[in-house]
Amino acid sequence: MRPSGRAPDQMRAITIEPRFTKHAEGSVLIGFGDTKVLVTASVEERVPPFLRGRGEGWVTAEYGMLPRATNTRNSREAAKGKQSGRTQEIQRLIGRSLRAVTDLKMLGERQITLDCDVIQADGGTRTASISGAWVALRLAIDGLLAEGKLTADPLTQKVAAVSCGIHQGTPVLDLDYIEDSAADADANFVLLENGNIAEAQATAEGATYDEEALLRLLRLARIGCGEIFAAQAKAVAK
Amino acid sequence: MRPSGRAPDQMRAITIEPRFTKHAEGSVLIGFGDTKVLVTASVEERVPPFLRGRGEGWVTAEYGMLPRATNTRNSREAAKGKQSGRTQEIQRLIGRSLRAVTDLKMLGERQITLDCDVIQADGGTRTASISGAWVALRLAIDGLLAEGKLTADPLTQKVAAVSCGIHQGTPVLDLDYIEDSAADADANFVLLENGNIAEAQATAEGATYDEEALLRLLRLARIGCGEIFAAQAKAVAK
Amino acid sequence: MRPSGRAPDQMRAITIEPRFTKHAEGSVLIGFGDTKVLVTASVEERVPPFLRGRGEGWVTAEYGMLPRATNTRNSREAAKGKQSGRTQEIQRLIGRSLRAVTDLKMLGERQITLDCDVIQADGGTRTASISGAWVALRLAIDGLLAEGKLTADPLTQKVAAVSCGIHQGTPVLDLDYIEDSAADADANFVLLENGNIAEAQATAEGATYDEEALLRLLRLARIGCGEIFAAQAKAVAK
Amino acid sequence: MRPSGRAPDQMRAITIEPRFTKHAEGSVLIGFGDTKVLVTASVEERVPPFLRGRGEGWVTAEYGMLPRATNTRNSREAAKGKQSGRTQEIQRLIGRSLRAVTDLKMLGERQITLDCDVIQADGGTRTASISGAWVALRLAIDGLLAEGKLTADPLTQKVAAVSCGIHQGTPVLDLDYIEDSAADADANFVLLENGNIAEAQATAEGATYDEEALLRLLRLARIGCGEIFAAQAKAVAK
Amino acid sequence: MRPSGRAPDQMRAITIEPRFTKHAEGSVLIGFGDTKVLVTASVEERVPPFLRGRGEGWVTAEYGMLPRATNTRNSREAAKGKQSGRTQEIQRLIGRSLRAVTDLKMLGERQITLDCDVIQADGGTRTASISGAWVALRLAIDGLLAEGKLTADPLTQKVAAVSCGIHQGTPVLDLDYIEDSAADADANFVLLENGNIAEAQATAEGATYDEEALLRLLRLARIGCGEIFAAQAKAVAK
Amino acid sequence: MRPSGRAPDQMRAITIEPRFTKHAEGSVLIGFGDTKVLVTASVEERVPPFLRGRGEGWVTAEYGMLPRATNTRNSREAAKGKQSGRTQEIQRLIGRSLRAVTDLKMLGERQITLDCDVIQADGGTRTASISGAWVALRLAIDGLLAEGKLTADPLTQKVAAVSCGIHQGTPVLDLDYIEDSAADADANFVLLENGNIAEAQATAEGATYDEEALLRLLRLARIGCGEIFAAQAKAVAK
Which residue of A43, B207, E140, F52 has the smallest Cβ count within 10 Å? Predict the structure, then answer.
């Protein structure tokens, strides 16, 4: 029995509020249960130095957690003067995941930055960030298409992410904080709508796992991402 | 005529959503028009080193702006590795303002940190932060009273803040971003419900001002803070 | 009775030694009693990136305190690796104050940096810095005029600053350190010779204050700045 | 055909020189072909603050690359003043991998730090680091057992790591730099001698991949880790 | 002929104003010609962690240069967020030099920090700092003796320092900035009153030098330090 | 009697392995007894900003010590976020020493960076670094000559460095760590093959020294550098 009473393959409620803020080219407040992440997409008509003059664009991400998004207050990274290793690892993952579905040549020499800020945390903040970032990116690119700055769509398909883990011997989908803290293994899968995998990361926390378990976690992730794809579709159709 | 069509002494709509997040001892989403600030109050049962063993508490604040709260994206302070002078100035002001209505001896050896994070900016983020911080602090202290950790209320009265300025020769209340960028003088007043002043800051941006103008700005601030006090009362009564 | 035996509206001795150092385009050692600040004005024939190509100049300030300027030694900011919030707040105030009396268009594409370094502190270091910075700026601009780099004077009038506060219930002028530590309210006024206000900041430290008190503090500041304007005039006439 | 002429399931030469330096409690120079990593294990009789007084030990890792370990010189992280996101991600992975085979309760209140410094890089520096770190850790723990500081062995089994990837459509084992730069997908597996998985990370670089590919990469990793386990056994037997 | 018209073995005017500031336990403004350094000695009744509980004291130094001490403005180290290599090298040298004449056991568990801040620079700032630091230290220790905190004098003798160099083929004493910029070799000697050497550093800038030149520079330094010892004696006798 | 049993004028074994790593234009592993330093020379076809457009090259150095090169582990400078004063002092010395034998005009607008990383430390790491850096630089310049990028040799002669000190009253050559920790005076000499001095630094640690002692240390250094010159010659002849 999961602490939340959910079935092993049951996601938390997915909520997506597109256009949550007014300034960004794309924005969304995504919720996986009590985990709430605000994602904005900012379009800039320039690329980082390593890409200049190559006619290609770039999609990148930054991640942050408000100090009291969690149960006890964490120091503010801006005040400490540096981003933690965890923050950097997550923002690198988000950037890679979105680039996996973007044709950077078609995007042209512009950069889109996805800022993922966790308003409230209850497990799965990085997977909610990726799933929400796709919506923000979709909205920003829709804007570029509408303004005629892009004539063809560089976004090739949907991408979504979800966490899974082995909790008290049972593979379960979409861990909340209580499960995450006690999981033996913890995995994050970034999947494309066509079924392909952009990223698989499965880490033993309390106990190592075997190949069979890895495959079961992947199957759970397919169930969860299916639901997320549906919610993304609905959100951008609004 | 103001760009927004408001009368000179007209505030923007004040919105206050108490208990906006679930983990913090107090939390609120406050809006002054399109300016939206999330404030959380975090209670810790320890005080900073300079106060240890003196039987007194501390109230402090931190301030941040999400990178795309504004019209064009700002670099993330955590990524740059330091907080700007503006950020530090604002968070010092918020802390002082709340301490002006808190009896630190009655609070006992505990610290309450008010995290003010700007979700969307349209002028007046520091004054919305102070006004919202009072609500978050009130809720956190109500919790301490309810739990019996405090037996008497250390919060002496309400505090609120609003900006005023001289825009095209006219003193106006609660500047939005368009007015703020073009104001000749820009003032922030932090007022108590009993009419006293906790902080007055009036800065010449484009043109210096005279004593008469200073007093007219203060009178506008009294009008604005009156409305904020009413909204605060309603929010904490919920 | 004030600890120093001064009357409530009595300034400390104002001492101004122009051309205190030899390399800077303008320099001064200013004293308000035991508070001693060395201010240098450095002219550079370039402006910060945000102003390039606009035909305008810039006036900015930096502030520092020698580690043992105070009664007990403070850590050196260069060794700690960052400037405190207080330092940044003060240097932003000094810069704004001097820009309030400078026609930046007439200055042309050059920057003047006012470095204010506190050699000895006894209260009022920021107001002595502003008052001394005007002298250093005046000398630097006189040099530019003498060399023919400027043909008209961009400095529109004098600016001076002084602190006032409510000490044991009495509004007093030009607080020294002992008074400053115990003041209920503490204000800094930056005034122009024509009577206008460039900046008013009045902060409740121990007790909030009313409108009447604010006005009395302002009147004290007018008395103090009058004396400073006279001292500035004498110093630059040398 | 691989650029190096190796078969798809062929590792590069594995070289392990135990006790490469004299001061550390354990040390090794490990080579996977031209990739050379110096790993030292340092034992300290104290644990990080979050573990104090719990009777448990800690195993952690730091990772660095000499500026000219690579084909073109990289800036020294100490000179830049911060570790890159990549560095932090790698050192977190190394630490987790070694903790997966250490019984921290049996280790007692002491910390072992594994410093992995890349002398020369040609792909696979993180996997060589993990594989070498096990040897350094084994030697350090052997020392603690020999000195009687430990009476039972907290190291439960061997751990090794290897990279695999899809290069020009073919899954290949132990990518060198040329392959790594051009791989469509790039995976790192951390495996235990008993066949279990401590960490699986598979990232799409150029093209996403399917479940079948993930499993083929895992099977290649099993081949590679088998060879590493044998080399580790031989090295610690010396 | 030297640019200043001085003879090769001629020092610039040495000026020493003891007790230049009022807060520090010892203070001095020392001048070697146009080079002016303010040195303060701060006594603290605690020692750095590495010395705690050993019954010994510590003498250390910090060095800084005001941004416009030099001909063109240098960035403020506090604003840049770090001290340059040159600054750190100099402050380490000053600390060592003063420790060479202090019996740290006799000083007891207290630390004296010598802050050397260059008000105006014209070559020889580090040697003026050392020479002035001795005076500030002497005054601070005299105070400790007068207060009865010390019963015996831990300062064993005088220490002074001077620069010498080879300028256009001629060994010269006490280089000013013009000579220093063009010197082939540049040396700093820290000498004791008894003739012993605490530190000798001779660096080839434009051309390497031979043993004979090294000895001639040392002899010039003896002449210069003789004059400094006399000035120090006079200053502390006041 | 020296702890190592060496005669006062006896160097430790000098070992030089040229071309120790494959990517750098020049590389060497140099050993002075148990002190082992890896030096790489990296050629870049650009110069630092202060030299641009002047047709001159630059030779610079960076220095680092692996965390466990020493008997007890030191914090990693990259993790601490800054280089120590000692590190900066050493890398400045190495750079100056190599520039003393390089004709920068002949080198043309390119920079050679010498990275000196201490693999194992037992005293004398800075002098081994300088001595090894000459070999790495020689190899890099030989490469530029062979490729035709240089037509004449900018390296004018050999440079080597060695430490000497006064240990228990006896001047000794090439201090190991045990001697270095207990030496009364500690000197580093950087000598050219023609007998000239590029840098002499002699520091009193426990006791000051006289002119005679300085000269005896210099004579020991001549003996040591003679051996190093021979070893350098042999290494580059391979």
Answer: F52
Measured distance CA(A212)–CA(B102) in Å, rounded: 59
- Taking only residues 190 to 209 of chain A, the set having a beta carbon closer than 8 angstroms to any beta carbon of chain D reads 192, 195-204, 208-209
The mean pLDDT value for D17-24 works out to 97
Half-sphere exposure of C155 (CA within 13 A, CB side): 23
Contact predicate C2/C12, CB 8 Å: no
CA neighbours closer than 13 Å in the CB half-sphere of residue C204? 26
Q: CA of E157: which chain F residue's CA is closest?
A: F208
- Is residue D156 less than 8 Å (CB to CB) from chain A? no
Are F171 and F123 contacting, i.e. CB atoms less than 8 angstroms apart? no
Vertex A30: Cα angle to A27 and A36 (nearest 5): 115
| CB-count burial class (<10 Å; 0-12, 13-18, 19+) for B169 | exposed
Nearest to C208 among B82, B86, B192 (CB): B192
pLDDT band at C145 (very low <50, low <70, confident <90, very high): very high
pLDDT tens profile D142-183? 999 999 999 999 999 999 999 999 999 999 999 999 999 999
| CB contact burial F15-42 (16+ within 10 A = b; e otherwise) | ebbbebbebbbbbbbbbbbbbbbbbbbb
Question: How far apart, in whole angstroms, are the C-alpha atoms of residue F234 and residue E238?
Answer: 64
| Residue stretches of the annotated binding site of E for phosphate | 86, 124-126
Residue E106 has pLDDT above 90, yes or no: yes
Of E21, E78, E121, the CB nearest to C83: E78
Note whether E82 contacts C83, CB cutoff 8 Å.
no
What domains can you pick out in chain D, each with its CATH number? Answer: 14-236 (3.30.230.70)
CA nearest to C116, candidates C193, C43, C57, C36: C36
Query: Percentage of chain E with pLDDT > 70?
Result: 100
CA distances in angstroms from F142 to B75, B221, D72, F173, listed in the order given: 46, 76, 19, 32
Q: Which 3 state secondary structure label does DSSP give D98?
A: helix
- With the C-alpha atoms ordered A103, A104, A105, A108, is the resulting torsion angle positive or negative? positive
Cβ-based contacts of E62 with chain C (< 8 Å) = 67, 76, 79
So what's the pLDDT on residue B5? Answer: 96
C-alpha distance from D28 to closest chain F C-alpha (Å): 12
A8, A2 Cβ separation under 8 angstroms:
yes
pTM, two decimals, is 0.93
Structure tokens at D94: 């190394």
Q: What is the distance between the alpha carbons of residues C165 and C216, in angstroms, rounded to a whole number?
A: 10
DSSP E48-85: -GGGTTSS--EEEEEEEE-TTSSSSPPPPHHHHTS--H
* Partner-chain contact D204 A200, CB within 8 Å: no
- Give the pairing of strands A159-167 and A185-192: antiparallel
Q: Sorting pLDDT into bands at 50, 70 and 90, what band is E1?
A: confident
**Predicted pLDDT of residue C205:** 84
For D195, nearest residue in chain A (alpha carbons): A210
SS (H, E, C) F29-53: EEEECCEEEEEEEEEECCCCHHHCC
Q: What is the pLDDT of residue F238?
A: 73
Give the residues across from E75 on adjacent strands: none
Q: Check F71 against D40: CB less than 8 A apart.
A: no
| DSSP string of D150-184, one letter each residue | -SS--B-S-EEEEEEEEETTEEEES--HHHHHH-S
* pLDDT interval class at D237 (50, 70, 90): very high
What torsion do the CA atoms of F21, F27, F33, F35 make, to the nearest 10 degrees? -80
Is B45 exposed, middle or buried (CB count within 10 Å of its CB: 0-12, 13-18, 19+)? exposed
Say if residues B103 and A104 touch (Cβ distance below 8 Å). Answer: no
Which residues, numbered 44 to 103 in chain D, qualify as contacts with chain A under a Cβ-Cβ cut-off of 8 Å? 82, 84-86, 88-89, 91-92, 96, 100
